[in-house]
Design brief:
It is a single chain. By secondary structure, the chain is of the alpha+beta class. Among the domains are: 16-123, GAF domain (Beta-Lactamase, 2-Layer Sandwich), CATH 3.30.450.40; 134-285, Alpha-Beta Plaits; 294-418, Reverse transcriptase/Diguanylate cyclase domain (Alpha-Beta Plaits, 2-Layer Sandwich), CATH 3.30.70; 663-710, Methane Monooxygenase Hydroxylase, Chain G, domain 1 (Up-down Bundle), CATH 1.20.58. The protein is built from 30 helices and 14 strands. The strands form 3 sheets. It has a 5-stranded mixed β-sheet with strand order 6-7-5-8-9, sandwiched between helices. A 5-stranded mixed β-sheet has the order 11-12-10-13-14, with helices on both faces. A 4-stranded antiparallel β-sheet has the order 1-4-3-2, with helices on both faces. Helix 25 packs antiparallel against helix 26 and helix 27 (648-661) runs antiparallel to helix 28. The chain is flat. The relative contact order is 0.05. TPR repeats lie at residues 420-453, 454-487, 488-521, 632-665, 666-699.
Length: 710
């Protein structure tokens, strides 16, 4: 059994110049007094270097020395990964004496900085997962904050997320393997462009460029759902927005990490699969369902004390106020006879005594016409009535805010009366914030008002899934299908619940119904294809997975996980005997996630079968067992490749480990028995075959092998 820790990072490769570009570029500036430093990877899949560097690059390849152009003040330094040229460092401008230094000195600097880059790579690698670590994350944060400070603002929005996938296991070995599996799954879900960091103890760091808080919450919610489908026990996410800071201020990266950590602590209290965004005082002040001040509530209570029928309206100007013109318009029209309670220069409550919802709408139409006649900015209104269902008078100010949020869906200058849809919207807002318990409370109230609302039932079902309440989720989706039998979302999600409950046939039937309704959903095609493969229906699985890949190539934002799809497509092609297509699929999976142990193992085995390089096959299968040595199948495939390479001793060790992990692995026992026979040890082989037949009495190859020894 290999130790599940990787203490050697391996030599520099071209991809490292992308992966560690921030730290490497900073190091280059430390080495050379220049104006600019550019890293150019050289290798397959990296594209062609700029045309203007072609001549210099040829000289470097021929002479293995740097190239200097004193007139242009340009220096081309080779970056070495051992003896292999993996990239160029192009230095321009700065101190002119740099470009007059002897070639011997520059060559020495080339090897020194290559060594420095290697040491940086080594220091940035987490030994447990092989991912980049917190040192790398801090460097990326520091560079981003410095850039934002110099520009006065972030060029693109960015968010920092801490994801906790904590293992609950009996020993360190299982804990490490759980974390490694989590890292591999996350890498497959996120892709190679989104750097994934492991900070230790199952805490992963993510720096999302181009996403604001709302988009990051949506991304995080999708990630948590996918981890649940991969059978992780818990997963929580804490998110914070990256904001510019004073360049003189120290510890800004640590402040961001602290904010994300505090948000993660809150997420732990919200459920097994939950998230939380860091909240500032400004966020609380602007929250759509912020508390109404006590002074305003006192005035409202005085207005509706003793009243049995009325409507309360929250009026809000659609634009930010530039003056008190809005409040003056309200006072002019409402006068003294109508209840008016100002909240701010942008918001006010109107009390309409004796008016129900319909009467309030008619009154407000006339009121709007008068407001427009006076002139000024447009405004929206949220209306709540009393009596309504079992809501108390004290609930109405918040219900008005929920109705006002409902009105925003219709654009500026809109009106909405509080109803089940308002509660669906408020539930979605709490859900997106990661407060699943509050979201469920809103959905339940919405269902009391409209029991057959399919959107609410679906939302409630998803929230129950993330709270690990499968029975409640199942009931919601079944009820939704009772109202709308062809609702795709309910069919898809109910399929997962059946699958988790060990009912794959029922899950398959639901997903096939969903496919008939909408065949252009990559997520559906992906999971349908995976389920077909698990049931041995590889032809149908291949068709579904190829359809999924086609849709993802059209538009990646539609959904689906490219590396996961490629891995399962490889399995389908392999089972169908199309090894060429299987190899291509596994290569795509590994290129996107180099730590996908399953794809590495299968790819290595196919290389050996197809005689495409025995050494590469051994290396890939060996890497797979180093990454995930807890899977018996990985050891079995490694043993097969070793046996093909005439390494019987290595194959026997791998087979012994395979059978230790899974004593019922009949094919492994059969291969080990055959090796024993070749070594002239028929008694040991006979004992193995009998053991196989105790587990699987009908296993024909073992019966034949045992008969051959009789």
């Amino acid at each position: 059994m290999t130790i599940p820790l990787l203490f050697v990072a391996g030599p520099l490769i071209p991809a490292d110049l992308h992966r560690f570009s921030t730290l490497f570029t900073k190091t280059a500036f430390d080495f050379f007094p220049c104006e600019s430093a550019e890293l150019i990877p050289l290798g397959e899949g990296e594209g062609k270097p700029p045309v203007e560097l072609k001549a210099g690059l040829k000289l470097i390849r021929d002479n293995h020395l740097p190239v200097v152009d004193p007139e242009r003040e340009e220096l081309l330094l080779p970056i070495w990964g051992g003896e292999t040229l993996c990239g160029l460092l192009v230095v321009r401008g700065g101190e002119s004496q740099l470009y007059g230094m002897p070639l011997v000195w520059l060559d020495e600097q080339s090897h020194i900085i290559s060594r420095e880059f290697y040491l940086l790579k080594q220091s940035c690698q987490d030994p447990g997962t092989g991912l980049v670590n917190g040192f790398h994350l801090r460097g990326e944060l520091e560079a981003l904050l410095q850039e934002a400070a110099e520009a006065g603002a972030l060029v693109v929005p960015a968010t920092l997320a801490l994801l906790e996938v904590y293992p609950r296991t009996r020993d360190a070995d299982r804990s490490l393997r759980y974390i490694v599996r989590a890292g591999s799954c996350l890498a497959s879900m996120l892709g190679e462009d989104m750097h994934l960091h492991h900070l230790g103890a199952g805490i992963f760091g993510l720096l999302w460029y181009g996403l604001d808080m709302e988009q990051a919450r949506q991304m995080g919610d999708s990630l948590l759902l996918r981890l649940k489908r991969e059978n992780f026990v818990t997963a929580r996410l804490g998110i914070t927005t990256v904001t510019p800071h004073d360049p003189e201020e120290s510890g800004a990266p640590e402040q961001l990490l602290e904010q994300a950590w505090q948000a993660l602590r809150t997420a732990r209290l919200r459920g097994p699969f939950s998230l939380c965004g860091h909240v500032t005082a400004r966020d609380i002040e602007l929250h759509p369902f912020r508390k109404t001040s006590e002074s305003v509530l006192r005035k409202l209570r005085a207005l509706y004390r003793g009243k049995n029928r009325f409507s309360l309206v929250l009026v809000r100007m659609d634009q930010e106020p530039a003056s008190n013109h809005f409040s003056k318009r309200l006072r002019t029209l409402v006068g003294q006879d109508q209840g008016l309670v100002l909240v701010s220069q942008r918001e006010a409550f109107l009390f309409l005594d004796g008016l129900d919802g319909e009467a309030a709408r008619a009154w407000l139409k006339e009121f709007r016409d008068k407001m427009e006649g006076i002139g000024g900015s447009s405004f929206s209104m949220g209306v709540a009535t009393f009596p309504f269902h079992d809501f108390k008078k004290s609930d109405l100010p918040l219900n008005c805010r929920k109705a006002l949020q409902h009105a925003t869906f219709f654009g500026p200058d809109s009106l909405a009366v509080f109803d089940a849809v308002s509660l669906n919207i408020s539930g979605d807002i709490y859900y997106n914030e990661g407060d699943l318990v509050k979201a469920l409370g809103e959905y339940r109230q919405g269902l009391l008002l409209e029991p057959g609302n399919v959107n609410i039932l679906n939302s409630m079902g998803v929230a129950n899934i993330q709270l690990n309440r499968p029975k409640g989720a199942r009931a919601c989706f079944q009820k939704a299908l009772g109202v709308a039998p062809e609702n795709c979302m309910a069919l898809f999600n109910l399929g997962f619940i059946y699958l988790e409950d060990g009912e794959p046939t029922e899950a398959l039937a639901l997903w096939e119904r969903a496919l008939a309704v909408d065949g252009d959903q990559p997520d559906l095609l992906q999971h349908l294809g995976m389920l077909y493969c698990r049931q041995g229906r590889y032809g149908e699985g291949r068709a579904a997975l190829e359809g999924c890949e086609k849709l993802m190539r059209k538009k990646s934002s539609l959904g689906g996980e490219p590396m996961v799809v490629a891995r399962w497509l490889g399995r389908a092609c392999e089972a169908l005997g199309d090894n060429g297509s299987a190899i291509a699929a596994y290569q795509r999976a590994v290129s996107g996630n180099p730590r996908d142990a399953g794809s590495l193992s299968r790819l290595g085995h196919l290389y050996a079968v197809e005689k495409q390089g025995q050494d590469i096959a051994l290396a890939l299968c060996g890497q797979a067992v180093e990454l995930d040595g807890g899977k018996a199948d990985h050891w079995y495939r490694f043993a097969q490749v070793q046996e093909m390479s005439q390494d019987q001793e290595g194959a026997m060790q791998s087979l012994s480990e395979c059978l230790r992990l899974d004593p019922r692995q009949a094919k492994a026992a059969l291969l080990l028995g055959r090796i024993f026979v070749q070594q002239g040890k028929p008694a040991k082989a006979r004992k193995l075959y009998k053991k196989v037949l105790r587990y699987s009495p009908e296993f024909g190859p073992a019966q034949e092998a045992l008969a051959a020894l009789s």
